[in-house]
Write a structure and sequence with these properties.
2 strands, DNA-binding, DNA-binding transcription factor activity, Tetracycline Repressor, domain 2, Homeodomain-like_sf, mainly alpha, 2 domains, 65% helix, single chain, Transcriptional regulator, TetR family, two-stranded antiparallel ribbon, Arc Repressor Mutant, subunit A, 11 helices
Length: 206
């Protein structure tokens, strides 16, 4: 089945090869994150509702598809983060929680994407990628809070990235036990700052 897009007036036109390639790679991302390289082109074709041959006409082979999936993931990882959080009227703690939740999902995807490549290729790939994207995104979200922060918003983004990577790296294992709330508390208050108020504390004041 060939995917089409609507022309003005309701008429459908076939997708260009570039549009089809991006559509396939984008749709493949969650499958590769959950199943790794064991995902088959048939599974992907069934997921998309297209013929398996359409995938091979777009990419030639599975290796080319995998590289396209990795590229699309890193190119668009932060696309929706700023609009979703900046326009929601959230407190600084709520925004930090949303950023950390997004970053943990992104970190899971990042490790899954890099696992699709050979170790040497993954290292070279990351060296070629432009750095600082997440920090810039976080800076946009927390710029209005600069007067309340002990560090500049961009450095806050770098701190969040380091915390989340350490808590999410499969090689470290124990990091999975850290909750989003614990990471938020650490980012906001450090190890000796104001603790999160507990329900028990609320009861004592009433």
């Amino acid at each position: 089945m060939q995917k089409t897009e609507k022309r003005p007036g309701g008429r459908a036109s076939p997708m260009t090869i570039e549009q089809r390639r991006e559509m396939i790679a984008t749709a493949a991302i969650p499958l590769f994150i959950e199943q790794g390289s064991s995902v088959t082109t048939k599974q992907l074709a069934d997921h998309l509702g297209i013929a398996e041959g359409t995938i091979f006409r777009a990419y030639g082979d599975k290796d080319a598809l995998i590289r396209a999936v990795v590229d699309v993931f890193f190119d668009h990882a932060n696309d929706t983060l700023v609009p979703e959080i900046s326009t929601a009227g959230l407190s600084i703690e709520e925004r930090l929680h949303a950023v950390i939740r997004h970053a943990r999902g992104r970190a899971k995807g990042m490790f899954a994407m890099l696992s699709l490549l050979d170790p040497g290729e993954a290292r070279q790939y990351m060296k070629r990628r432009p750095s600082g994207g997440f920090e810039e995104t976080a800076a946009q979200i927390f710029t209005a809070d600069a007067a309340q922060l002990q560090i500049p918003p961009r450095k806050l983004g770098a701190l969040i990235r380091l915390l989340v990577i350490a808590a999410s790296a499969p090689q470290l294992g124990d990091g999975a036990a850290l909750s989003d709330e614990e990471l938020v508390d650490f980012a906001l208050y450090g190890i000796a700052g104001r603790p999160r108020r507990s329900t028990a504390d609320d009861g004592k004041k009433n």
